[in-house]
Amino acid sequence: MALSTLLVISGIILLIAYFTYGKYVYKKFKLNDDRPSPAHTYEDGIDYVPSKPIVVLGHHFASIAGAGPIVGPIIAVTFGWVPAVIWILVGGIFFGAVHDLGSLAASLRNQGKSIGVIIQNNIGKKGKQLFILFSFSTLILIIGVFADIIAKTFVSNAGVASASILFIVLAVSFGFVNRLFGNSKQAFVVISVIGVILMYYFVYLGMQLPFELSYQTWVYILLGYAFIASVTPVSMLLQPRDYLNSFLLYGLILAAVVGVFIANPTITMSTEVYVTADNLGYLFPVLFVTIACGAISGFHSLVASGTTSKQLDKESDAKVVGFGGMLIESFLAIISVGAVIVLSRSEYLERLGQEGPVPLFASGLGAMIASMGIPESFAVGFVALTVSAFALTTLDTCTRLARFTLQEYFDDIKSPTALKISQNRYLSTSIVVILSIMLLASGSFSTLWPIFGSANQLLAALALLTIAVWLIRQKVNATFVTIPMFFMFTVTLTSLGLFAWKNFQAEVYVLAIIASLLFLLSIALITLASRSLRKELKTTELVK
């Protein structure tokens, strides 16, 4: 079968899903434009800023994508490309898109607050505290790991560092000029075209002007940048950078599709399914943990309920941003699979072990894009740079999300210190950055990172649980949420159990204990949710 056929079939399925199932899910959440969005109700020019849907989609897509829909699917092809593709399509439509739109909808109806606050409003204060401690710890881990990855990338490829710096300067300039023209639609179109052209030019210019610094220096610069991105108005840096950067991914997707049709490669890898894989384990639950971004990822719920919900101009924009953004990511995941299944299985496994998923993706896709007449070395470099650019987007978004999470945790604590942390964004961001530096200095982030996959999917299961309780309390049939919720709890609890036992046997007790604690956390939140629903049922019966 030609690879182009797989892309066309997948694209058609995702498009049909958006206009049919997306419409159904949107109606179930009862979103409408009669109610002002939190961006208008709580507009403060810093975090709550009503914005155009294409800008919010750019921010949301850039934040949730990163390297996730590339790395996970390519590794998961170890089990066979057919189960990987099926999970991306089924998971993206019926799990991830519901999860993302649901997190966004629930946040819109809860003052633009995060999943933690929604848990408090629907399950209880204890549930909020447990969830926020878990999500905050996860975010600090992501910040530490990505600061390390990006710093090492900048050291090994100074051209990527130069291009990234130029992107930031361009984003600040874009935001300034856009505000100067009062967010005029005509001016916005013009500066968007200019901004995108300059961004692609900076890809070339950055490679010609490498900027070299030491690893340690880059770490401090990156965390300093993350601090600034967290405390400045979202329309000044974070939003325009994500919006412009999203065109890198859009361009990558478009170039990939055109390149595939011109090169017209065939799928060489067999359709055989492998129940077990060396160094990974069994297909269930590993496949569903490995392919997170592209199918369903708990991190998306933090973005949707953290930064995205505070920027939506009106509730109807939630469908294209939440549901649509997820399906675009699913298509990118399909492209990622396509980049490696043109190889034989033996060649794929050999190169995956030697090169890693990102270089393998860059070389595979770069060769296809080169069929358009672009030098292959430039095409491969462009793909690699695009992936690296989105790692920086993940870093600054996570820092802002960690700041929100920390502030919300201290909202209910009555003390002068708690009040300062909850109301002072500079203080709360400083705490986030200091904790990230401490994690990096300890070196323990590399030890803790292996558990992230299971922890991320546990976030997804808990977000679905929260959305389900919120809907049930509103007397809405939540079956379309509870089915993926039960499946994700089965996946994550199985994964955490196996992970704990494996590390206990290997005498890696830290990971075994953390996995066990996460297992207990999920049981605790399920119990609290059940109590909340039983209480709601009793109250309803008394009223009757």
What can you see in these coordinates?
This protein is mainly α and 544 residues long. 78% of the residues lie in helices and 1% in strands. It has helices spanning 3-19, 21-28, 38-41, 53-65, 68-76, 81-108, 115-122, 125-156, 158-180, 185-208, 215-231, 238-263, 283-290, 298-306, 317-340, 345-355, 357-369, 376-409, 416-423, 425-442, 445-448, 452-473, 479-505, 509-543, and strands spanning 276-277, 281-282. The protein has a two-stranded antiparallel ribbon with strand order 1-2. Helix 1 packs antiparallel against helix 15 and helix 5 crosses helix 15. The protein starts with a helix and ends with a helix. The mean pLDDT is 91.
Short description:
78% of the residues lie in helices and 1% in strands.
Bulk shape:
globular
**Radius of gyration, CA atoms, in whole angstroms:** 22 Å
Low-confidence stretches: none
SSE sequence, one letter per element: HHHHHHHHHHHHEEHHHHHHHHHHHH
Helix count, per DSSP? Answer: 24
Which class of secondary structure composition applies to the elements?
Answer: mainly alpha
Mean pLDDT equals 91
What spatial order of strands do you see in the largest sheet?
1-2
Through-space gap between termini:
61 Å
Strand content: under 5%
- Assign a percent range to the helix content: over 70%
Total E-strand runs? 2
User: Main β-sheet, in a few words?
Assistant: 2 strands, antiparallel
